[in-house]
Amino acid sequence: MTSTAQTHRHHPEAPAVPAPAPARTAPAGPPPAHRAPAAPSPARPALAGTAPANPTPAAPSPEGPALAGPPPTRRSPSGRRGWRALAHRIDTATPPTRDRATDALRALAILGVVLGHWLVTALVTDSGTVHASSPLWHMPQLAPASWLFQTLAVFFLVGGHVGSRSLAAARARGTSYHRWLGVRMARLFRPVAAVLAVWTVVVVVLLGSGVDQKSVYALGKLVLSPLWFLLVLAGLTALTPLVARLHPAWPMAVVAGVDLVRFGLDGPAWLGWANVAAAWLVPYCLGAAWARGLPRATGGVLLSAGAAATAALVLWAGYPAAMVGVPGAEISNLHPPTLAAVTFGLAQCGAALLLLGPLRRVLRRPAVWAAVALVNLSAMTIFLWHQTAMIAVTATGLLTGAALPGLHTVPDGSGWVLARLAWLPVFAGVLVVCWAAFRTQERGARVPAADRA
Question: What is the pTM of this model?
Answer without folding.
Answer: 0.81
